[in-house]
Amino acid sequence: xxxxxxxxxxxxxxxxxxxxxxxxxxxxxxxxxxxxxxxxxxxxxxxxxxxxxxxxxxxxxxxxxxxxxxxxxxxxxxxxxxxxxxxxxxxxx
Length: 93
Description:
By secondary structure, this protein is α+β, with helices and mostly antiparallel strands. Helix content is 39%, strand content 19%.
């Protein structure tokens, strides 16, 4: 197998990172946006985005393809309180 063929078979991702303030005011937390190269996303890039056919829509719908958008990640960070220490602790007594 040629090296070029090997690379074209591998999934391609675009990652973006933002550091956002923690809800409790104690520093910052990373929020990632992940876009995977799929038939749908390549089509949107090649044929240009249109109403209801945007990369944002593809990321929101692409959770099963390991995609995520900033808006959803920021919402999770703001709305989900951190678990109590006893939930995270490996030695629960």
